[in-house]
Amino acid sequence: MGQPRDIIHKLSELGYRVTPQRMMILSAIENSDSHISAEEIYAQVVAKYPRVNISTVYRTLELLKRLDLVTETDLGEGRVRYHPADRGHHHHLVCQECGAIIDLDESALFSLRDTLLREYKFVADLRHLAIFGRCINCRQ
Amino acid sequence: MGQPRDIIHKLSELGYRVTPQRMMILSAIENSDSHISAEEIYAQVVAKYPRVNISTVYRTLELLKRLDLVTETDLGEGRVRYHPADRGHHHHLVCQECGAIIDLDESALFSLRDTLLREYKFVADLRHLAIFGRCINCRQ
DNA sequence: ATTGCGAATACAAACGGTTGCAATTAACTA
DNA sequence: TAGTTAATTGCAACCGTTTGTATTCGCAAT
Questions:
Q1: What distances in angstroms separate CA A130 from CA A3, A63, B78, B87, one per listed residue?
Q2: Which residues in A5-114 belong to E strands, given as ranges?
Q3: What's the average model confidence in pLDDT over A19-36?
Q4: Deepest in the core among A9, B77, B100, B129, taking most CB within 10 A?
Q5: Which residues of B fall within a CB distance of 8 Å from A111?
Q6: CA distance B67 to chain A (A)
Q7: What dotted CATH number matches B4-85?
Q8: Which pLDDT score is estimated for B4?
Q9: Which CATH architecture has domain A4-86?
Q10: For A114-126, what is each residue's pLDDT tens digit?
Q11: pLDDT tens per residue, range B121-130
């Protein structure tokens, strides 16, 4: 995602407005050192700018997703998490027994992606996949 | 999922109660010829038994999932869909452009499952996967 | 048939997230 | 610098789903 500075530049370049809300949401995601939820972003932003609304957070996240600046991951917690897209695409193995989350390099899905392309002519978007199951500690 | 009769038997065998709500929810899923949503199940049940509540539908679906009698699929419509588990495990390729849904045989994911097991000792539960992307008609 | 008990229910409120719309405002023009 | 206008926002209502809780009810024992 680079520096917030770059992103702000990119936004206005593409004709999007640079609003204080967007800047604060951007820096909340940037400053998070792991995956952050919309609610957490909102809490951080509202502390400095109380009039902001949660729907603005969701709409901004929607925009940033569309521009490939953030990646969304559903880890099955009943809430989705976000992180800067340039921190690398990785996937998650989520243990349904103990809740452990194991990072999975995106290369693990390269052959699946190729198969889908070859056999189904389908361009799979595998940037934010969570696979559920049982980890080594939870199966006997 | 077999006959509703069998399932009802299985439920009471396992110590679960056989209630009219559960029977009606079961037959709604059974009679659907494709994937059915909780809302659609509810609509069908409420027509014959107006006092039933939507939360009962969700809790029953939760139970049936746990007992491996129904499978849940999230096709990204903002609502989850259900179908009898014994109708076969297949996956879906969902086109984010035109909304097309392409069925994908579960065998397409066998090699991924093996890789995860071998390299991560992770038993992946790949029964209800939706993969998003672009179909052949929507990419140039 | 009646009782007792715990499982299942209806109901209401809450959850995370989305949407329609009127008011605000960033960024262009003059 | 002020004026214009379409993008963006706040707000409120809504969506599908989940959860807490008091009440109901299936079912085994009497």
A1: 27, 22, 17, 24
A2: 36-37, 70-74, 80-84, 90-95, 101-105
A3: 93
A4: B129
A5: 111-112, 115
A6: 15
A7: 1.10.10.10
A8: 65
A9: Orthogonal Bundle (1.10)
A10: 999 999 999 998 8
A11: 999 988 878 8
